[in-house]
Amino acid sequence: MPGSPADDAGFTPGCGLLAVDGHPIRDAIDWRWYTDDYEIELTYVDADGDTGTVVLEREEGETWGFDFTKAIFDDLMLCRNACKFCFMRQLPEDARDTLTLRDDDYRLSFLQGTFVTFTNIGPEDEERIIEQYISPLRFSLHAITPEVRRDVIGKHAPRGIEVAERLLEAGIQVHAQIVLMPGVNDGEELRRTLEWAYAHPGILSVGIVPLGFTKHQTSFEFSFNDRGMAQQVIDCIEPFQLRAMEERSDAWVFCSDEFYRNAHPEDLLDYLPPAEFYGGFDLFEDGIGIVRSFVDDWNACPDAQLACAQAIRESGKRVLFVCGCAQREFFTPLIEKSPLSGLLVPFYVKNEYFGGNVDVTGLLCGCDISAALATVSSEDDDVFAALPKVILNADGVTLDDMTVSDMEGASDLHIHVVSCVASEFLPQIAQMCGNSARR
Predict the structure, then answer these.
(1) What is the pLDDT of residues 154-210, one digit of tens each?
(2) Measured between alpha carbons, how far is 276 from 255 in angstroms, rounded to an integer?
(3) Distance CA 138, CA 224 (A)
(4) Rounded-to-integer distance, Cα 344 and Cα 318, Å
(5) Do 172 and 130 touch, CB atoms closer than 8 A?
(6) Is the separation of the CB atoms in 344 and 308 below 8 Å?
(7) Which of 27, 63, 269, 312 sits in a 20 to 30 Å window from 240, CA-based?
(8) In 253-354, at which residue ranges do the beta strands (DSSP E only) sit?
(9) 280 and 262 in contact (C-beta within 8 Å)?
(10) What is the pTM of this model?
(11) Whole-number Å distance between alpha carbons of 322 and 324
């Protein structure tokens, strides 16, 4: 950062930091822990490979001015489990290597919100978590009965519970996750697991997500897509939610949006829990509360809907909004009841790349998007597609390594990347249509 202590000391991009006050720094957590002062001694290696030591000072409120290319500086802690539901074991053979890397690193749990099993945490890791108060963490719980846990996770399953109980006893807090599999850890096992979790106040919340499976495996044929099965899960957790609301003032245990969608496919909007039910939306990244958040944001911007409708109408364009089939039950009724009906067209793309029950927008691949868009008749340049940015990674590519240009070439349609939030993508689409009309 220009003008920072790092810049003043002569650091440049490409340098590496090795230690702070003699303490080796393994990750961004160590960096935060050992640099919480106004003067530090840094051991470094510069861009030419030469090492040295320098003392840096900063003013109150000033940052040191360093940024890092990644959060973990040493080796990533890998998964040693054999989870039955593991999505990374269900990927096609041509999936890129980064998609099949099975990490189980508690540091990424703290820094980036990934869920970990605690099965590979040793005594030194436990001591560090407690000493540096690396909290809250995200814990893959899944089941509590030893036999069921071993069946679900593998032979190291007992270690995860032992570590979890010691960390909770030491004051570390966690958000827990249960990947629910029909006939394996649902029903009575789910109730037992939630009873165990509720008895540990350090477990701040429990998120329940359904088994996701692809066509590239032979172990699973169904999940909780059946209306009755989905409703049974909702009914199972309701007593825990009522108890938690009374005793803790929040629902504590949450079903992912898929359960509500599958239980109420024709009238989902009438059965979604209200926003206050989700509290701080702590489990948003697990698909818990995403639909409610989207619906509330959509309903809060009627002026943006009107402006977008007017811009589309005046441009003479047809706008296709690309999304996964999981959005159908709420996006279609929202559009149909708005000024955008017939103007902004939900374009639902079936996920053929992964297959199975994979239907969320974020897992759509370029090959399926471009193949679907290629079926659209485009005359006089009157159609363009709006692509939610969640489909692309930080490098601008899809899960099957296609860029927007690749998809445009394969589909012969213009594609514009937009926000996933209605109050943002509606003005974006309106501006695109306005620019098109002026041309």
Answers:
(1) 999 999 999 999 999 999 999 999 999 999 999 999 999 999 999 999 999 999 999
(2) 15
(3) 24
(4) 7
(5) yes
(6) yes
(7) 269
(8) 253-255, 318-324, 344-349
(9) no
(10) 0.91
(11) 7
